[in-house]
């Protein structure tokens, strides 16, 4: 076995590879840019080598610096993770020429499958079902519109060398086809150095389902069942699960066998993923093959018990797969939520900065029971209790940089059933505390509560269909609002008692006792009367049953039992109350004694400043283009500017008709959140 390997990546995937290598007794080498000098993967590795400035094209994408780091440290092999150089055949060949093993497929397979146009042709030749489209060279935006019309709208415009949702647009008419082509080509060139674009038919009501394959150098290849990745926003996966609630055994077998046939057609070795689009009748069509480890690989590991990173290392070392297709099973259900540095309350715009607080839920069995051991996949062995796994590359104090992908962590849950895994995920998300940046935990938490997710009736259009105006938090219904009011009153009472106590016990269980009384709680437009009894609580005259609470001032979450239900809200003090967040709900609860409540209702509400005549930068980023000039008249929907952040181009459009008064910025400028890009005449 290898004695030392280098991980040519950063963040959570670098940490993930290090964990398996450590378990296998293999020493590890990390590489890092200036921005990652203090990163977790650097601290975890046995050695670390600096490779350049923060920009990926000056550090992580420079193959010569990776090879130099291998020579400097004596690393015998390189694991590329995903992204960066993971699907770069030239890098693979350079490693081979330097006598260094690439932990992944051979250059032939990378080239064949890494190019989406070529891969579709090979898939068709291998008998894999493919979606209609145009695989030839597209000259310009007008040519793209002509082809799109011939294929038939709607169409998907995609970068040939793309991935991760970059360089992808859906077009429903000629105008969108032209604009989508320009944007996709620009993103593809900046992200992958390859601006070739192809167009294919967009399947309506689709599901995104992929098959994990694993092959060795002796001709053995197996499929490890499927992952469903239909919960996407702007073609970027948000929630994945394994298995799919939609597939039957017959379709799963057909998709798996076609995936293996494709892998064998290119002499594939290592782990790889064949992605399909599946329609409502379970007809499936080949999308692409990713010749690397997928971001969402943990859910496959959790239901099969197979450590994919370990098998990649063993295959690269020349070992045979230790199992056959008949050995692969589906054990339980697993869900992965991607925790992103994206603010759902600001249109999911990227958020950068320092993690002032980062407290993920504890990994392992949710019920706290001891496991008889931990399997290579990270799931407890010998018990049916739901289990949590958190793959991350950050810790409290880490910096989320504008130079890289906005992922913070991948929170995974396992349960014996889909319902159990969903409940475990929902509870875990309520326990996840992140401060200092905007993040999507409330949004993913809301998805876990959504009836359509719970039923399994999902598609890639789920987010666009269920949240067409974006996400502003889930509205609390009457019963939940009553529980939140009760929680706020209990928290206020506990906080007041803590202040009055001369010698408090910081670890005490704050069960309801002694003091009782009435509180008025305001949640939005709602006024609720909460009566705190000796052992229980009622809201607007409705008894909520016995109460128990575990919280102390300064703790970020509380455990509150109302009747037979346990709530775990995030608690942040505000003036006269608390901001409470759970299950995707985000409310300010103001708590008053009755005589003060009457006065509070008379207080004027402070109005926000009027910025309707300004175009503000919605996220930290770099101005790519200013599309209008001072004095120009613009129409609603017209493109005003393009700002790039975290490798994605964001098009800013006019909300109303108007005239541009001034533009204080220019292309190339770096802007902060809410920086003025242009002003309009009023």
UniProtKB/TrEMBL annotation:
Keyword vocabulary terms for this entry: ATP-binding, Biotin, Ligase, Lipid degradation, Lipid metabolism, Magnesium, Manganese, Metal-binding, Nucleotide-binding
Domain Lipoyl-binding: 605-681
Catalytic activity: propanoyl-CoA + hydrogencarbonate + ATP = (S)-methylmalonyl-CoA + ADP + phosphate + H(+)
Pathway: Metabolic intermediate metabolism; propanoyl-CoA degradation; succinyl-CoA from propanoyl-CoA: step 1/3
SMART domains linked to this entry: Biotin_carb_C
Domain annotation ATP-grasp: ranges: 120-317
CDD domains in UniProt: biotinyl_domain (cd06850)
The protein's enzyme class: ligase
The Biotin carboxylation domain, residue ranges: 1-468
EC code: 6.4.1.3
Required cofactor names: biotin
Listed PANTHER family: CARBOXYLASE:PYRUVATE/ACETYL-COA/PROPIONYL-COA CARBOXYLASE, METHYLCROTONOYL-COA CARBOXYLASE SUBUNIT ALPHA, MITOCHONDRIAL-RELATED
Protein name: propionyl-CoA carboxylase
Organism listed in the record: Jiella pelagia
């Amino acid at each position: 076995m290898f004695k030392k390997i280098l991980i040519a990546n950063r963040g959570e995937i670098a940490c993930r590879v290090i964990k398996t290598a450590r378990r296998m007794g293999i020493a590890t080498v990390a590489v890092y840019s200036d921005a990652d000098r203090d990163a977790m993967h650097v601290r975890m590795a046995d050695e670390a080598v600096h490779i350049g400035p923060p920009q990926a094209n000056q550090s992580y994408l420079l193959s010569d610096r990776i090879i130099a780091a291998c020579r400097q440290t004596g690393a015998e092999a390189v694991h590329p993770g995903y992204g960066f150089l993971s699907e770069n055949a030239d890098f693979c060949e350079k490693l081979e020429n330097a006598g260094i093993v690439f932990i992944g497929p051979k250059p032939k397979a990378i080239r064949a499958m890494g190019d989406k146009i070529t891969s579709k042709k090979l898939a068709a030749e291998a008998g894999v079902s493919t979606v209609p489209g145009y695989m030839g060279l597209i000259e310009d935006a007008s040519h793209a519109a002509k082809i799109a019309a011939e294929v038939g709208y709607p169409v998907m415009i995609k970068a040939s060398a793309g991935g991760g949702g970059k360089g992808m647009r859906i077009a429903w008419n000629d105008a969108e086809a032209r604009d989508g082509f320009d944007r996709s080509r620009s993103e593809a060139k900046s992200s992958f150095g390859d601006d070739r674009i192809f167009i294919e038919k967009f399947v309506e009501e689709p599901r995104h389902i992929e098959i994990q394959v694993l092959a060795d150098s002796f001709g053995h290849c197996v499929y490890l069942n499927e992952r469903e990745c239909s919960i996407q926003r702007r073609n970027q996966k948000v929630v994945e699960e394994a298995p799919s609630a939609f597939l039957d055994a017959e379709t799963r077998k057909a998709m798996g066998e076609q995936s293996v046939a494709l892998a064998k057609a290119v002499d594939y070795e290592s782990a790889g993923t064949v992605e399909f689009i599946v329609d409502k009748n379970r007809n499936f069509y080949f999308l692409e093959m990713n010749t690397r480890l997928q971001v969402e690989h943990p859910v496959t590991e959790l239901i099969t018990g197979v450590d994919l990173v370990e098998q990649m290392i063993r295959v690269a070392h020349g070992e045979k797969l230790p199992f056959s297709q008949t050995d692969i099973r589906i054990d339980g259900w697993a869900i992965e939520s991607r925790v992103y540095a994206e603010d759902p309350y600001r249109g999911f715009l990227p958020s950068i900065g320092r993690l002032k607080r980062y407290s993920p839920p504890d990994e392992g069995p949710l019920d706290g029971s001891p496991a008889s051991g931990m399997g290579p996949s990270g799931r407890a062995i010998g018990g049916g209790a739901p289990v949590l796994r958190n793959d991350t590359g950050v810790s409290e104090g880490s910096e989320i940089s504008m130079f890289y992908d906005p992922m913070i962590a991948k929170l995974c849950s396992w349960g014996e059933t889909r319902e159990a895994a969903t409940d475990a995920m929902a509870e875990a998300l309520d326990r996840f505390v992140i401060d200092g940046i905007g993040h999507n935990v409330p949004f993913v938490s809301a998805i876990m509560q959504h009836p359509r997710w719970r039923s399994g009736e999902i598609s890639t259009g789920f987010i666009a269909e269920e949240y067409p105006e974006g996400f502003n938090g889930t509205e609390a219904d009457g019963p939940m609002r009553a529980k939140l009011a009760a929680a706020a009153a209990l928290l206020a009472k506990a906080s007041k008692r803590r202040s009055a106590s001369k010698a408090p016990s910081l670890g005490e269980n704050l069960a309801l006792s002694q003091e009782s009384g009435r509180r008025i709680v305001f949640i939005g437009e709602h006024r609720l009367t909460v009566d705190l009894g000796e052992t229980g609580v009622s809201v607007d005259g409705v008894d909520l049953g016995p109460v128990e609470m575990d919280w102390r001032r300064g703790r970020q979450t509380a455990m509150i039992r109302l009747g037979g239900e346990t709530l775990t809200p995030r608690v942040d003090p505000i003036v006269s109350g608390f901001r409470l967040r759970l299950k995707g709900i985000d409310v300010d609860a103001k708590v008053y004694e009755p005589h003060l409540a009457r006065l509070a209702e008379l207080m004027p509400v402070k109005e926000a400043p009027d910025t309707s005549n300004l175009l503000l930068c919605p996220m930290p980023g770099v101005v790519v283009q200013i599309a209008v000039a001072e004095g120009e008249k613009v129409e609603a929907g017209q493109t005003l500017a393009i700002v790039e952040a975290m490798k994605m181009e964001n098009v800013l459009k006019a909300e109303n008709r108007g005239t541009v008064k001034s533009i204080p910025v220019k292309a190339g400028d770096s802007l902060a959140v809410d920086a003025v890009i242009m002003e309009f005449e009023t």
